[in-house]
């Protein structure tokens, strides 16, 4: 199936676009930011991902005759066509003219800071909102989950969750995000082909079941794959399966080949891994690795390692590919400033909510990341208005103004990088490459303190508004409450 | 992006296919069944979905030159090419020759009964396994969630979870599955176009924020959409927003138009809905409906209704589109029988596990659904071997052999219907249509007892193995434990 990103949107984005077009707002420029409010998985960081697909969305965004025929067929609930013919004609030649800035994939990011900024005509900004949120929310979630799993595993992790992933493209981009987050490989062949990811796999229980007995199945597999032989030992009885694998491993050795590993996919994995290691070592197959799989996540992996099992690699499926314990990031995309055609400057915009944590931040924003020393350890992130600059280098927690931190004198870098200008993508190839993003993830995680990478109750990283921006936002709340 | 289903698979399916091809197993016929083991969402039923995409998978399955070039580029971990040139040549002209039987979309289904059956050459059966599981698992999950949400809501539910869905295609098929499960409409325009689903939407907070004040924003929207005017009232302050909406609603009435509704997207929804209803009624706008949204699911909706709020329709996003509280179904696809080229009959195959609940069932299976009376109420489902038939009409719970039920004398129908024969789909257009599937869902749910539709601790529906099949399975376990 082919996915047309121009229609991969909520209907209201198109009706609002018609509304803006009709009521003279079409030339109003807008600035939107995408950010999330809560640490995913109760962890201490997130890994940004989704920017390669976002570039693809921007590049392919155009309405076909087919799209327009479909839109013209829609009726308003109260009768009459939903879209006006003149608006559909406008869409026929419509091209995005947004500027998009985003953190590179693999950047370690935190709540309340912009990950993506979109500026341009307000309708353009909204027409890509849904697809942008869909890809950045989901892929950031999966890259983060993968990073957590890989931190726990310490040895290579293969992602193989496609069969439990949420839909086909969900699976394909999930596999890519898993590699960005740190996975060594994926079982997903299409993702391997599309994104140049390492692919890997062993065999299924059905292979064993289709032969008269397990030993015959193992022998046939070893003959077929002498350079890639990992035997799944739990179809009938794990210990007997290990004995059969050892028999085949010794036969392979006699032929000058090597049994690369055995995989255990059920039962008490920690206990079985230790048993298997002992049996393999006693048989002289110390070079045969142990692969574990079956409903693993960062917590079960940590527990298995804590029990002293020596595991050479891990297969992680369901709980990674759909981020089982928290299947959405909840990132939002909020209007923060507008500028009319005659305006010299941007006007702040704010959505007020009942809680300080859900209040939006006005302005055209970017993030300064401060480092201790020569860049080896993160100190704090400052959200600032690019037009106002940083008046002082004190940051204020947007959800709790008693939490402040002075970052003056520290080295910093600015996080948002150009992804598109006037609707044309300018993202360098190196910023689309999943394996380069994986290196960025590793480098970024190494700048976090161990306390921020803890699985349980990690240390909260300081992210705040630049002091002047904090004050501007406070004043705007007071003013808007008055005019609502 | 275009999704090629032939590579939408785990690598091991392709390596195993090469293994079967090489070691003379290629002419072995196999029978696989897809089923799930646990009720999703701790509920009392599931709604089958995903068969329309499964038909698309079967229809488009062919390896392109591009695919083969990619596969030939892969190396085995131990060195040398992973795939042999002769096998890749075999794939070049490969066409599926499987028979697929499946329950129609919208069928109410239960744990431990086959939803899809695939028979054919063993490699063919495995090459579609991953894509089949991906689509049937996910869509059945979402259709089931939607059915639960709609049972709780009682008034129309619009699905609008695309921005939080897991990937683009995840979002598109999720929207379709949500409609199959009972949703009145979706906000997802691409899903609307692809599958002929009703689409709907209101406007966003950004519409309001882009105008000088809320009243100006509401007036502009009412002018732009006199036949489709639902105003979002919680950008700044909900009660003031309702007052502004009332002012615009009265202006519309004076022009002979109608304010269709207001939408509340934050705060205490039950309290605000009751307040809004009172304010609208007092203003003479009794015909203005109330739409609620914001992190809703079946439980919050039920609680809001229990408090007496009168809600005309609901927008349900995140928690529906990714099935937040249980983001995978966990359905499996298990080999149950093989037949060699010289065999007259099928040989039973079984995967043994440590628990009775995870044991597979051998044979070539189908399901008889028994009804009380003339079909108005379900009595129980029998899993039986189509070649052995039903020796007696007593069913045995596969996970607990003390639970048995005699269904003799009751009317029954058989659930699996042909979807493909020798790789050619035979699925009637009526069985691909999402709106027809939604009717099947409604009809199916009406045959369930209220106790089976309860949200909390529902009654368990009797599904069991035909008595002779139960005995065959038990004997096979004993035998396989011996030869493993």
From TrEMBL, chains A, B:
GO molecular function: nicotinamide phosphoribosyltransferase activity; nicotinate phosphoribosyltransferase activity
Keywords: Glycosyltransferase, Ligase, Phosphoprotein, Pyridine nucleotide biosynthesis, Transferase
GO terms classed as biological process: NAD+ biosynthetic process via the salvage pathway
InterPro entries attached to this UniProt entry: Aldolase_TIM (IPR013785), N/Namide_PRibTrfase (IPR041525), NAPRTase_C (IPR041619), NAPRTase_N (IPR040727), Nic_PRibTrfase-Fam (IPR007229), Nic_PRibTrfase_pncB (IPR006405), Nicotinate_pribotase-like_C (IPR036068)
The keyword Ion transport is annotated on this UniProt entry: no
Enzyme class: ligase
Domain Nicotinate phosphoribosyltransferase C-terminal: 394-470
Pathway(s) annotated for this protein in UniProt: Cofactor biosynthesis; NAD(+) biosynthesis; nicotinate D-ribonucleotide from nicotinate: step 1/1
EC number: 6.3.4.21
Nicotinate/nicotinamide phosphoribosyltransferase domain ranges (all copies): 159-337
Gene3D superfamilies from the UniProt entry: Aldolase class I, nicotinate phosphoribosyltransferase
Pfam family, one: NAPRTase_N
Catalyzed reaction equations: 5-phospho-alpha-D-ribose 1-diphosphate + nicotinate + ATP + H2O = nicotinate beta-D-ribonucleotide + ADP + phosphate + diphosphate
Signal peptide: none
Domain of life according to the entry: Bacteria
Domain Nicotinate phosphoribosyltransferase N-terminal: 7-137
Record function comment: Catalyzes the first step in the biosynthesis of NAD from nicotinic acid, the ATP-dependent synthesis of beta-nicotinate D-ribonucleotide from nicotinate and 5-phospho-D-ribose 1-phosphate.
Family listed: Belongs to the NAPRTase family.
PANTHER family from the UniProt entry: NICOTINATE PHOSPHORIBOSYLTRANSFERASE
Protein name: Nicotinate phosphoribosyltransferase
